[in-house]
Amino acid sequence: MKLNDDIIEKLSNIESLIARGELKEAPENEPERQYYFMAKLRDYVNQKKKELGRDLYACTKTFGCQMNARDSEKLVGILNLIGYKETDSEKADFVIYNTCTVRENANLKVYGHLGLLSNYKKKNPEMKIAMCGCMMQEAHVVEKIKKSYRFVDVVFGTHNIYKFAELLYMRIVKNAMIIDIWEDTTKIVEELPLERKFSFKSGVNIMFGCNNFCSYCIVPYVRGRERSRNPKDIINEIKMLSEDGVVEIMLLGQNVNSYGKNLEEPMSFAKLLEEIEKIDGIERIRFMTSHPKDLSDELIEVMAKSKKICRQLHLPVQSGSSRILKEMNRRYDKEHYLNLVDKIKKAMPDISLTTDIIVGFPGESEEDFLETMDVVKKVRYDSAFTFIYSKRTGTPAAAMENQIPEDVVKDRFNRLLEEVQKIANEQTVRFEGEVQPALVEELNGHIEGYVTGRLSSGLLVHFPGNEQLIGKIVDVRLNEAKGFYYMGEMA
Ligand code: 5AD
Ligand code: SF4
C-alpha cells in the first residue's frame, strides 16, 4: 500500500543507522522512537523465521466499535511491517485482542476467548498474547489478568497504542509480562504505519475520547478526555488515502459534533467537512457518532448542500423519556430531539436516520418506555441498534437504585425490537424501484455471480456483477426491498 512507502523508507534509514552502529539507543522523539523498535523487531522476526524454518503468523481480533476497528488497522500495520503474516486463526504465533467494555457481555466474551488461548499456547511455546483496548483501562480487569491469566504477554490501553512495537520489544528483551496503562493523554502520534481492511474505503479518526459522561457509559473513563486532531493532519491523511485509491471515508469520533472545540485555533465540524469535501478523488463522506445536543444548524446546512456527504445520520436517542434522558445526563429532552429530526428531514427528505436505544435504564417505568416507543414511531428510523442496559462499575448509573428486573427489561426489549424492525422494513420499501449509486464492496458470499454494494443510506444492495466492480461506484436499480437490504441490477 502506497501510504506506507514513506514509513518503509524512514524505517530503512533507521535500520542502516543501527547496522552502522550509529544509533545505539532508541531516540526520544516520536514516531522515530517507534521506528527504532520496529527495526529491532524486524530483526527478531527474521531470526525466529530462520530458527523455525517457517513464517510467523499474527491474528488480530477486534471487539466493539469503529474506533477499535481503526486502532486494529494500526496494530496490523505494525505487525506487517515487522514481518508477521496475517491470519484469522487464533492458533497463531501472536494473538492480539483489541477489547471493548461498553457492555458487560463484551467483557465476558474476551475471558471466554482467553481460556481457549491458554490451550493453544501450551502447544506453541513461541506464541505471544497481547491485550489492549478499552477493557484494559479498567483496573479490575488488569488485576484479573495478572492473577488468573499469567500467560498473557503484553497488556496496554487505549492511549498508548502507538507504543505497540516498543512494548512488544520490551516483552522479548525482559521475558516478563509487560503492562503499560495510561490514565489519560493529550498526545496524538501521527505517521505510524497502518494496514487498511478495504482498499477503497477507510475510517479516519478526527478526535479521540469523550467529555459527555452520560451516566450509564464507561467510554469517558476508558477513552479519556476529548482531543481533536489537527485539521491539517486530517486533510493530509485523507489526501494520501485518496491518492491510494480510497473513495469513501468515515470520519470517526465519539462525538464528532464537538470536533475542534479544544484546538488552538477552534474549528467547527461543519467547517472541517467543507474542507474535506474539496479533496479530489473522495466521492463519499460518512461520519459517526453525532450527539443530538451538539448537532448544529450549520452542519445540517453543509450536509444538505453537499454532493459527497452520505444521506445517512446516526443520531443516538438512547431514550424517548425526557425524565430518563435527564437521569442519563444526555442534556437534551424528547422535544428537542424530535424538533432536531424535523429540521433534518425538512433539509434532507431522503435522509436515512439510525439510532442507538437503551432499554431498562435504572428507574425506567412503563410510561418512560412508551415514550421511547413513541419516538421510534415518530422518527421512523431506517435502523436502530437496541441495547439492554448493562451496569458498568464506576459509572453514576451503576449506583442508582431501581435497577429494572430482567424479565421486565426483556419484555420491553422484545416489543421495541419488533417495532423497530417493522418500521425499518417499511422504510426500505420507500426507495424500491429507484436507481441509486452503490459502492461495490465485495463479491456476494451467498450467491455466485453477485456482488454487494453500499448505498448512500448505508444499506446494502446485492446484484449481478464481478470482481472488477469492487471499489467502483455504479448505478443500481433497487428492484426489491428485503427488509434490511435490496436485490437489484446495474442500471
Ligand atoms: N448499557 C447498554 N448500552 C450502552 N451503551 C453505552 N453504554 C451502555 C450501557 N452501559 C450503548 C449506547 C451507545 C452505544 C455505543 O452503546 O446506546 O450509543
Ligand atoms: Fe458514552 Fe455518552 Fe460519550 Fe457516547 S456521548 S461515548 S454514550 S458518554
Description:
The protein has 491 residues and is an alpha/beta fold. It has helices spanning 5-19, 32-52, 66-82, 104-123, 139-148, 164-174, 219-223, 231-243, 269-277, 297-305, 322-327, 334-347, 366-379, 406-429; strands spanning 57-62, 85-86, 94-99, 128-133, 154-156, 178-180, 201-205, 207-208, 227-228, 248-252, 284-288, 312-314, 352-359, 383-388, 435-443, 450-455, 460-464, 473-481, 485-490. The strands form 5 sheets. A 6-stranded parallel beta sheet has the order 2-1-3-4-5-6, with helices on both faces. Strands 15-16-17-19-18 form a 5-stranded mixed barrel. A 3-stranded parallel beta sheet has the order 7-10-11, sandwiched between helices. Helix 2 packs across helix 6, helix 9 packs parallel to helix 10 and helix 13 packs parallel to helix 14. The longest helix is centred in the C-terminal third of the chain and has 24 residues, at 406-429. The chain is globular, with a radius of gyration of 24 Å. The two termini are 32 Å apart. The model has no long low-confidence stretch (mean pLDDT 95). Bound molecules: 5'-deoxyadenosine and iron/sulfur cluster. Iron/sulfur cluster binds at residues 210, 212-214, 217, 219-220, 254-255, 291. Iron/sulfur cluster is lined by residues 210, 212-214, 217, 219-220, 254-255, 291.
